[in-house]
Amino acid sequence: MEKQNAPTSDQGQVGSNSSITAIMRLATDANRSDWERLLNKVMRELGFTRYLVSLGPNLPAEADPLAGIITTFPQQWLEEYRGDRLIEIDPILRHCRRDLVPLFWEKARRRARGRSRQFWQQRERYGLRSGLSVPLRYESQSGTLSVAFEDSPTTEHENFSSPAVFRLFMLIPYLLTGMRNQRQRPAQPRHDLTPREMECLYWASVGKTTWEISQILTCSERTIDFHLLNATRKLGSVNRQQAVSAASARGLFLTAGALPIK
């Protein structure tokens, strides 16, 4: 049986009417949580459970490098990226700022040297070895749509022939329209997440279990699960890990005062 690196049409149901309808709905003016939930549904139907979407102006050197992104990449990788200031050597970011053609990670990794090679090696530890990054442009803003494939070698031609990758390119104009609509909406108030929800998310982000958080915050495990479920819903996520990644990517742990209190 032929091994595929990107999802097949059977895996992602990329040709179904429901998938096409969901892609088109990304262009609608939904609220932030609903829109991110829809994006997650579309990406999962295409077969991409790990993805990253960004669009915006170039950030100043002192800014949070993950501000404004939407991602399901591993939380540990996001923390390492931020902590090690990998934005300074990120070959994906550099490529997407200057080019319009897609970047296949395997090819870029093989030809990398010096610090760029180190970047790819660090990503591999988190299962981000094979994938694709598509440059995004809207007016004066730039960004990327990145998806991770299964960690198996394949050729660039095989990736392009994947039905899921083909649908990914079809998704881009609807994605850009939806992101434009999101940026035109009034900013959501920072107290969308309650202080207790932020505390629970913070402790989850440092690896604490529900029981451990309940001991730290002196409340029941059921209460902790309730707060984490609410936070997950508000962040447009499908599980606790994704909610932690979303909160971290938006810089909430750094700027919202979600710090240990005991």
Automatic annotation (TrEMBL):
Keywords: DNA-binding, Transcription, Transcription regulation. The keyword Transcription applies. Pfam families: Autoind_bind, GerE. Transmembrane segments: none annotated. The keyword Transcription applies. Coiled coil: none annotated. Residues 186-251 form the HTH luxR-type domain. This is LuxR family transcriptional regulator. It comes from Pseudomonas petrae.
